[in-house]
Description:
Layout (H helix, E strand, L loop, with lengths): L4 E2 L10 E5 H15 L4 E5 L1 H6 L2 H11 L3 E6 H9 L6 E5 L5 H6 L3 E4 L2 H13 L4 E8 L7 E2 L3 H10 L3 E7 L11 H20 L6 E3 L3 H6 L7 E2 L24 E4 L2 E4 L4 E6 L2 E5 L4 E2 L5 E2 L4 E6 L16 E4 L2 E4 L9 E4 L11 E8 L2 E3 L1 H8 L3 H6 L7 E4 L8
The structure holds pyridoxal-5'-phosphate.
Amino acid sequence: MPIATLERLPAASRPTWVEIHLDRLAHNFRAIRARVGEGVKICAVVKAEAYGHGAVAIAHSLESVGADWFGVAAVEEAIALREAGIARPILCFGVARGQEALVLEHRLTPVVFDAAQIERLDACARAHRTVLEVHLEVDTGMGRTGVPLRELETVLRAFERFRHVRLDGLMTHFAAADDPAQAEFTRAQIAHFHEAVRVVEARGFHPTYRHLANSAGVRAYPEALGNMVRPGGLLYGLWSGPRPSAPSPCAEIVIETPMGEYAVQPVLSLHTRIVFLKDVEAGTPLGYGSTFVTARRSRIATLPIGYHDGYRRALSDRGRVLVRGRFAPVVGRVSMDWTLVDVTDIPDARVGDEVILIGQADGQRITAEELAELCGTISYEITCGIGARVPRVLVSAGESALE
Ligand SMILES: *Cc1c(COP(=O)(O)O)cnc(C)c1O
């Protein structure tokens, strides 16, 4: 995904853009650091283009504030970070068959969970005359990747046999740590992980790293920090589950730390501009399928953003945007490239006005969680879904991209 992390949006571009607020990213990182303390490594999860924020820019920024490791889903993502000059260790949650040489060449740390992977990596490391450090994932309740506990011994035998691969980390992944109603399940995952640690140590392995916690784990399970944590969403000011202090999607995501409470801040905002305004009579149908018919004489603004940009079609007739600090409802279907909003009640709206689709202005805000709720999903899917044709513009404290 070619994300343009421009310092400034070029004057002649389509006026639809994302702003990445690096000061908020740093704030969120520091909140997590305060939560976990200096003794726990932070593996910043930047998979999927850092949840749509732009992985390279996010990783550079996090490297400068002290991220110890980076976590990605795929080898390709890790290589892109290396090519951009990221030097810190990169944990790769999934290594496909055939990618072993790339792992060695780019100094990646693979997560493994079966003996065949260990054997393939061993062969490759032996050919490179080196010993490759890997992390072993155990499945304690996620049911996705990870070796089931009852097969742990078999995998450990592979580590004994294949000496060019060294077990340097043991990890597991939480399935429901964001849901207080499932706390017992999460505590069982933690107990299973402790059991796995015992088994591994009993066989004479002493991995440097032990890690379990995703964002929800960092926030809610201080007993499960191990000596490394893997937050993703929390870094970006996003929350994966029902809002911690629901019911309002605007409730803040708060992290408790020994230094007090920190509310994490959304790093991403989504903007466009009004490109066209028209006055229509009552009874005018709008958009594909004519799903919306004006009930009054109305002023309709056309916005150059659609579902290809990640402004989801599910927001048709349901979403709202901010124009001049006031909410304007989405009317009619969101199409691939365009969205209509009703600005009848914002009579000073003009062509060229900035419109906020995710973000805040004049004390009002629209969160990715609000959009997610309307779309029946989570905020991660909203930011991940922001299209590649939307430039990501980096902004620092107090700055706006378009001054
Ligand atoms: C995505 C992922 C994370 C981060 O999850 P968040 O909910 O974004 O904190 C951590 N670990 C693994 C293995 C993951 O796949």
